[in-house]
## 1
Amino acid sequence: QVQLVESGGGLVQAGGSLRLSCAASGSISVYSAMGWYRQAPGKQRDLVATIGPTINYADSVKGRFTISKDNAKNTVYLQMNSLKPEDTAVYYCNAHKIYLTGGEFDYWGQGTQVTVSS
């Protein structure tokens, strides 16, 4: 059973930094991509950053957030700098897997709260 466990969220003042971690229960090399999504109250879940064959960022976080991974530790990170109040949300780790049969599936962590005060 795949488990993704996020950590590193918390309360920070605007302009501050946080680093989120997502530890997977097994090798992350089996996934075609991993990433971070966020969901603010009353809003849909949106992509923040993904890492796979390429790295992609939402326009709103480009230049401030950096996604990385450590295959040896089966962990994906999201370094968040210059945080803004609008970054406040629950951040979810995602692992996207493509099976040899052609099927695809998304695995999700339980989420970690990030709150940025003004």
## 2
Amino acid sequence: QVQLVESGGGLVQAGGSLTLSCAASGTRFGANAMSWHRQAPGRQRELVAHIPTYDSPIVADSVKDRFTVSRDNAENTVYLHMTGLKCEDTAVYYCAAEDGLGYFVSWGQGTQVTVSS
């Protein structure tokens, strides 16, 4: 059973930065592609970034100039580095683990990011 725990969310002013962490357990972490998603109130959950096991990561067009994703397989952790935060980035951010076929096998509980103007 893969368990994911996000951390690092909080309240930040527009233009600020945050780094979210997602710690994984119960899996051979290096074999899982990982992704970050977010869900704002009243909106559908959307993909923010995807980091495969070996290929280059992908970041959504809406944030690609401001967000980057990285992973530390030795620490079983994936990170979302967010800079130039905007009010529209306010959402609950979730990480997810995928199996070898791209199916989501686990989600974290989410961490709230609130950007104030």
## 3
Amino acid sequence: QVQLVESGGGLVQAGGSLRLSCAASGPTFSNYDMGWFRQAPGKEREFVARISWSGGSTRYADSVKGRFTISRDNGENLVFLKMNSLKPEDTAVYYCAARPSGGIEVNYWGQGTQVTVSS
């Protein structure tokens, strides 16, 4: 069982930056690929970024490529999402997710953290 707790959300002006953190419980954190998803009001949840269990491979949605960076610290069971050059359309609840390495579906979700970007 993996529990995920996000933090770091808040209100920021367009062009600003935020860093989201996700703290994971459990001794097998390094067995999981980790990701970030987001859901804006009235929209479906969408993929934002993913990082492999080792941190050696990352993937980003086209909408955030070049602005967001995902990273992880397996020693501390932490995943980060550094968000730069934020836009109003980045406003959403951001969710941390865990998927067994090499798996297809997300097994665990965090409760989400709100990010609001004002214009």
## 4
Amino acid sequence: QVQLVESGGGLVQAGGSLRLSCAVSGIIFSINDMGWYRQAPGKQRELVATITNGGATNYADSVKVRFTISRDNAKNTVYLQMNSLKPEDTAVYYCTAYVRTWRAGDYWGQGTQVTVSS
């Protein structure tokens, strides 16, 4: 079984920073794209950032410059460094990864809450 476990969420004041981590474990042949999504109350889940196994990145316009996605392929871990946080960044953040395992496909973490106070 493949598991994605997120950590690093919490409460922070506007203008502050947080770093999210997501570790993939289980029987893994390889991992392709990894990414972060978020879902605020009453809103649909939206893309935050993605990164390929080669390191190419893509960001939502709302987080460009402020957020940085990175990965450590040796540790099967993806990170999201979030700076200059705003109250509108408040959401549950989910990591995802396309994992090549016995049943290849997109796998998701359980989510971690990020709350930014004004």
